[in-house]
Specification:
The chain is built from seven helices and 31 strands. By secondary structure, the protein is mostly beta strands.
């Protein structure tokens, strides 16, 4: 007797598709059995998923999880109505026939096929690394966007666009050891004057300008006072003022792509785009992360617009604060959509905060049991991200609390006694004047 077995190859399938595994065989012997195996753990385990026993003419399943999922279309065909990621892997079809000569000997042959199950990404998001982060007027900053794609199998192709145009980026296989060793270039500087830069920074060379200032003639006003102490810059000058940075060429982008397997068989892909941020040209720039995947009919994308904070909206509760109340000052939002997440810093103008600290970080400032001395105090909230900063002020008005005594006179009633004495004295003087 002869027996040849083969399984038709399958193209990659998408999660949820119906798949038919067909085992073709030729023989001149009598059928004994057909057994389908699912191979796991690198071929060390073979799990029966379907058996056809010709001796008893019975069809049954040896795998509880596959019950109600296989459908015997023909003797050599098994159908999986809805494939899952867990169905991914090799399958084998074993066929046995009786030998025509002895009728007791069984001849066996098998075929195998690999079922490649793909899954489209289920989520995509773009976020900024190292947020919240401050804004710097005096030195260049590296900025990184991170695109996270989850739920895909195999790993997707991820790329970035700026204002709808693909970004040509330099591959960066390993994360940078330090910003100074791989920064695209130093920034040039012009129109520098002592209303924009603290003299101490200029004297110590902390402008982040490399050797640009060392080779050029120092601007007028800085040369004579390099050794002076730090000068306080008026807040009206530096508020929301962008630095005058000039790039010699278009930004140089660096791209890095990694992926990590997940326990459910999918892959989480992370793509990072890093460049030297220039608030003048990057503010309100639209960046998008796009994903191509064989299980997707069209690219999947997520986009963000880089925007500096503008016009914080501050609320104070209670709106009419009294002595002894707990006052909460909260930033509820902005006049615009801000990205990346801002950093909030609270200060009290001309003095320290109620707890004695110079500043407080966070979206909310809480003043516990405010005293009357805080009446009229001004609080400043600085909101900043790598693209810019803005200040908003609010004044605290504290009203008297009738439930709190103003002093010891109210508690012992002496003030009331004085008022009664003065009233009696006025009446006595009136009577004496009338008699005279």
């Amino acid at each position: 007797a002869y027996l040849t077995v083969s399984i038709e190859p399958l193209p990659p399938v998408v999660v949820g598709d119906a798949v038919t595994l067909k085992c073709n065989f030729k023989t001149d012997g009598k059928m004994r059995e057909i057994v389908w195996y699912r191979v796991t753990d690198g071929g060390t385990i073979k799990q029966k998923i379907f058996t056809f026993d010709a001796m008893f003419s019975t069809n049954f399943s040896q795998m509880e999880n596959y019950r109600k999922r296989e459908d015997l279309v023909y003797q050599s065909t098994v159908r999986l109505p809805e494939v899952r990621i867990s169905d991914n892997g090799p399958y084998e079809c074993h066929v046995g026939i009786y030998d025509r000569a002895t009728r007791e000997k069984v001849v066996l042959a098998s075929g195998n096929v690999f079922l490649n199950v793909m899954a489209p990404p289920t989520s995509i998001s773009v976020l900024a690394a190292d947020t919240p982060a401050p804004f710097s007027r005096y030195q260049a900053q590296n900025f990184t966007l991170v695109c996270v794609v989850s739920g895909g199998k195999p790993a997707p192709l991820v790329y970035f666009k700026r204002d709808g145009e693909p970004i040509e980026a330099t591959p960066l296989p390993e994360p940078p050891a330090g910003a100074g060793s791989w920064a695209p270039r130093n920034l040039l500087h012009r129109d520098l004057d002592d209303t924009k830069v603290p003299k101490s920074l200029a004297a110590e060379g902390q402008l982040g300008l490399g050797q640009a200032l060392g080779t050029a003639e120092p601007p007028r006003g800085l040369a004579a006072e390099r050794d002076s102490v730090t000068e306080t810059i008026p807040e009206t000058v530096v508020s929301r003022e962008f630095p005058r940075w000039v790039h010699v060429a278009e930004p140089i982008y660096y791209f890095r792509h990694t992926h990590a397997p997940v326990s459910d068989g999918t892959v989480e892909a992370r793509a990072t785009l890093t460049w030297t941020l220039n608030p003048q040209i990057d503010n309100e720039a639209l960046f998008s992360c796009e994903v191509k995947h064989p299980a997707l009919s069209m690219p999947m994308q997520s986009e963000v617009t880089l925007v500096a904070p503008k016009g914080p909206k501050i609320t104070m509760t209670p709106t009419r604060a009294r002595v002894g109340d707990t006052v909460r000052i909260l930033v509820q939002g902005f006049q615009n959509e801000v990205f990346p997440e801002p950093l909030f810093t609270w200060t009290r103008v001309g003095s320290r905060l109620l707890d004695g600290s110079a500043e407080h970080d966070g979206k909310e400032l809480v003043l516990e049991r405010v005293p009357a001395e805080l009446n009229g105090s001004m609080y400043r909230c600085t909101a900043q991200n790598p693209l810019g900063s803005t200040d908003t002020h609010t004044r605290l008005i504290v009203f008297e609390n009738p439930n709190i005594p103003r002093g010891p006179e109210d508690s012992n009633g002496s003030l009331t006694g004085h008022c009664g004495f003065r009233l009696v004295l006025v009446l006595t003087l009136t009577v004496i004047l009338e008699l005279t």
